[in-house]
Amino acid sequence: ISKVLDMATGVNTEIIMYSKKYYVLTIIVALLMLVTITANFLLIPKYGLIGAAYSSSIGVLIYNAMKFFWVKYEYGFEMTSPKYFLVLLLATITFLLLYFIPDFDKVIVNSILKSSIVLVLFLFPVLYFRLSPEFNSILFHLRKRFLKLVLKGKI
């Protein structure tokens, strides 16, 4: 989960790293280390391995928030849009629902049910509300290619 959080913030690390104030990244990493170690001391005794995972996620979340706000403060731009947070919310809701749905003995039933949930709760809203223009463009291109193949009789 912490790596997904890290990927979700885009290229903030690179922006800071290649700027004149690259040393800020060292400070932010040191703060990440302090937060993670503190969270480990607090969470591991009570929750064990899950506590370590939580502390890592908390540290990475704070680390990415600091990078995000530094880039916004220092350079006046952000690498996300409000639509981006809506996509994250949809993905989180979909993930949680899939996580709590019990698995069935039949693999095909699991596959159909969980794929349908992803389609309805994530893909359809992302497409319908045009939350990702790049994604919509790719699907439009694929649909066009598919229709050409169908019209030529190759499918």
* Strand/helix succession: HHHHHHH
Largest sheet: none
Q: On the 0-100 scale, what is the average pLDDT?
A: 87
The assigned structural class equals: mainly alpha
How much of the sequence is in beta strands?
under 5%
- Number of E-type strands: 0
Explain what the structure shows.
This protein has 155 residues and is mainly alpha-helical. The chain has seven helices and no strands. It has helices spanning 2-8, 12-17, 23-47, 49-75, 82-100, 107-128, 133-151. Helix 1 (2-8) packs parallel to helix 4 and helix 5 runs antiparallel to helix 6 (107-128). It starts with a helix and ends with a helix.
Task: Record the SSE blueprint.
Elements: H1 2-8, H2 12-17, H3 23-47, H4 49-75, H5 82-100, H6 107-128, H7 133-151
Helix pairs in contact: 1-4, 3-4, 5-6
Short descriptors:
0% strand, mainly alpha, 155 residues
In a few lines, what is going on in this structure?
The protein is mostly helical. It is built from 7 helices and no strands.
